[in-house]
Amino acid sequence: MKKYTIAVIPLDGVGKDVIPLGAKAMQKAQEILGGFELDCRYYEAGVEYAVKTGKMCEDNLGEDIAKADAMLCGSAGHYDADMSKSEYPGYKTGMQVLQFLRSGMGNSIGLRPLRLRKGIDCPLRNREEIDVLLVRQLAEGFYIRPGHMIGEDAAYDTIVVTRNVTEKFADTCFRLARGRHGRRQDGKKMVTLGNKHGNVTCFDFYRKIFTEVSAGYPDIGLQFTQVDALAEHLIKDPDRFDVIACENMIGDIIGDIGAYITGGMGITPTADVGGVTPQFRPNHGTFPRAVGKGFANPLASILTAGLLLDTLGNERGDDNLRRGARLIEKAVEDNLTTGGPRTKDLGGTANTFATAEAVFKAMEVVKICSKGER
User: Fold this and answer.
1) Each residue of 131-152: pLDDT tens digit?
2) Distance, CA of 290 to CA of 293 (rounded, Å)
3) Alpha-carbon distance 276 to 65, whole Å?
4) pTM over 0.85
5) Complete domains list, the chain, with CATH
6) What is the pLDDT of residues 147-183, one digit of tens each?
7) Closest listed residue to residue 300, CA positions, set 267, 259, 333
C-alpha cells in the first residue's frame, strides 16, 4: 500500500473552518476505498500566526513541506472582518507565506479547472455543462517583481518573462490538452493563449514561444485571443475553449471570471504545481466575515481535496488515488443533485458543517466506475 504525507496548512480566516473538512474528505476516501494511506500533518502559518509570533510560519515548515507529497492550504490575509491592512505590523510578514508556499517550493504552473458541477445553477443562459482548464503562469510576469514609487507623483512596475520558463509553461499546456477530451464545441484539442499581444512586448514574446512549442504538438490546435475578447467569449460561449493559457495577472482575472460562471468562489478548487511539493487550495480567500459563523461553503475545500488526489494519482500512477478523487466528486454532485444540504451562496440554508457531513455520508453510498468517468 502506497503512503503519502499531506501537509495541511489552514492559514487564515475561514481556512481554519473549511480546510480540515477537505482533509477529512481525503481520509474518508481512504477509509472507504483502501489502497492508499494518508498521513495528514497540520501546520500553523499566515497573518494571524505572524501577528502573534512575529514569524510567518513554524520554524521547520519549509523542510517538512519539502518532504511532503502535497500541500492542502487555505489563504493568507485578513482573519478578522474589522481589521485594516495598514493597522497591524504582522500583515506583510504573514503574507510572505503565499510566495513561500508557491515560488519557494518552485510551483510555477497554476491549474484552475473550470467545471460546472451537476446541481449547480449556471448564471449563463441554457448552460448545463462547462469544462475548461485554465493554466496560469505563476513564476514570472506581473505580481512577481516589486514596484517602485517615484516620489509622490508616479509609480512603476516591471514585468519580465524568460524563454526557459515560458517554454516549460507552453509545453505543460499542450501536454495537458493532449490528455483532455477536447473542447465541447467540436472535440478538438486546443490551447488558447489569452494575451495582449501587439500592446506589450512580453506578451508578444509569449506568442512567439507558444508558436514555436506548438510545432512539437501537431495534434493540438493553437489559437490566440486578446484578453478582453477572451473574457467576453468565456462568458458567451465557454464551449469554444479547451485549455486556456495565461500570464500571471491575466490568469488571475480570467480565473475569477471562470469561477463565477461555474458556481462561484465557494466551489472552485485550484492547484499550483511544477515544483518540489504541489500546493492545492480553494479559489476563495480568507472570507473574514464568515469566520466562526458557519455559513462558508466547504465544497471548494472538499473539491480541492479531490483535485489533490487526482493530480497526485496522475503524477504517481496510482489508480487508487484517482478513484478517491472520483468518489469525492461524485459525492459532491450527488448531494447537489438530490436536494441535499447546501450553503446560502448556492441558494440553500445549511451551515458549513452540515453541508460537509452530507457529502461525507454520500461518499459511503455513491458508486464509482473502476476507471475514469466524467
Assistant:
1) 999 999 999 988 887 788 999 9
2) 5
3) 9
4) yes
5) 1-108+270-374 (3.40.718.10), 122-262 (3.40.718.10)
6) 889 999 999 988 999 999 999 999 999 999 999 999 9
7) 267
CB atoms within 10 A of CB 54: 11
C-alpha distances in Å from residue 180, one per residue of 162, 239, 339, 355: 27, 14, 30, 31
What integer pLDDT is reported at residue 372 of this predicted model? 44
Decide if 221 contacts 188 (C-beta within 8 A): yes
CA dihedral 62, 67, 72, 75 (to 10 degrees): 10
One-letter amino acid at 310 equals: D
pLDDT in tens, 91-135: 778 888 888 888 788 899 999 999 999 899 888 888 889 999 999
Alpha-carbon span 156 to 175, nearest angstrom: 36
> How many Å apart are CA 54 and CA 246, to the nearest integer?
35
Interhelix angle 248-261/227-236, rounded to 10 degrees, is 10
187-219 tens-digit pLDDT = 999 999 999 888 889 999 999 999 999 999 999
Give me the pLDDT at residue 374, please. Answer: 43
